[in-house]
Amino acid sequence: MKVIICGAGQVGWQIARHLSGERNDVTVVDNNPDLVRRATDTLDVQGIAGHASYPDILDRAGANDADMIIAATYSDEVNMVTCQVAHSVFEVPRKIARLRAQSYHTAIYSDLYRRDHMPIDVVISPEREVAEAALRRLNAPAAFDTELFLGGKAQLLGIQLDEDCPVLDTPLRQLTDLFSTLRALVVGIRRKGKLFAPEPGDQLFADDQVYVMTHFEDLTRTFEIFGKTVHRQERVVILGGGNVGLAVAKALEGRAERLRARVIEKNRACAERAADELERTIVLHGDGMNSDLLAEAGIDRADAILAVTDDDNTNLLAAVRAKQAGCPMTIALVNDPTLVPLMEPLQIDAYINPRATTVSSILRHIRHGRVRAVYSIGDAEAEVIEAQILSPSSLAGREIREIDFPEGVMVGAVMKGDEMLKPTGSTRIDEGDVIVVFALAEDVPEVERLFQVSIDFF
Length: 458
Hints:
This protein is an alpha/beta fold. It has three domains: 123 residues, NAD(P)-binding Rossmann-like Domain (Rossmann fold, 3-Layer(aba) Sandwich); 122 residues, Rossmann fold (3-Layer(aba) Sandwich); 92 residues, Regulator of K+ conductance, C-terminal domain (Alpha-Beta Plaits, 2-Layer Sandwich), CATH 3.30.70. The chain has 13 helices and 24 strands. The strands form five sheets. A six-stranded parallel β-sheet has the order 3-2-1-4-5-6, sandwiched between helices. Helix 5 crosses helix 8 and helix 5 crosses helix 12.
């Protein structure tokens, strides 16, 4: 498949890495020559320096015979015009645009993206994706990381093991025997900063961070087995009343169960807009770093704080201050992946990486063959890949124990029809099954080779 990616920032670079790794013909376009050079130096891609919306630049990028264009520059308007030019001048079949401004996502204007108007096949809203990720964190308060797979039937949980965890020093194979009906599997362990895929004889120790794939119906039981108590969220403080914070607050207001939320926003205009659009949520205007304002918001009685301003430092420090004030659950939005190692020493319970969330969303819309979703763990340390097994695959018709997976790979879940199974060595992988695989970063190319992703199935 021939793909043009417009925008060589973190999102564009990650998408280019995924698609070029699957042996697609990828060209990256950006008006910053340094970003283009970084992409061409580190990835198997071609690069063009120039404005993505200019017809001559798209022509040089090969738009005449491109199968898809992904517009992920920093400008909504450039992304929209790029898709229009790709359609009107070059007849590119599939066009995906990242649009941040919420006005572009209003339902009453959805006709804007028809082929005879502004021909965009898929519109991605980073703010909405991040808001949904934040809600998933709130729904799984005992996890520091979480993502849904298999249409919501499987959930990846990142769980920090404490000294009182009841299954410490227990070999993983023994866990399977002790909890034979539990549809959950440990697929990854981070110990002393190193992430690895465990063997059946590996034990769990205090301070380990474990990644568990579980059936959504077994969520509470899984937390209990790993020593976590699931408390119902009744009071939430949201720091940041911009698009993300506002979307989360609206979603919380729409829930059937009553939940008290308070929003803190430093910008007066944003605070007034949030107050106008929210019905039951109290909006406070001021600096979320101010201890008195946090106290006024009731941080000492809150079940969680969600820090989602556009400044990483503010989010981290506010989360630390909230924890010191007695808030048991702190969630911070962090754009810079190099800050992720600070989560544990700062005692921040969970984080949201907007770039990883946006990349996962775009990849979900790109895949038409085997790979249906990709989720990045940590600072691109590993990936969780959801893929359908097609007939030519070397995996079809074989038991898991017969498949020569790399050491850093584990199958976390298998979907047969509408039923999710906890995989064992004797589980047979058949054509049409959907599997979820945990893979360390260095083993991802081999996993993609096993799935045999090729242009024939796009």
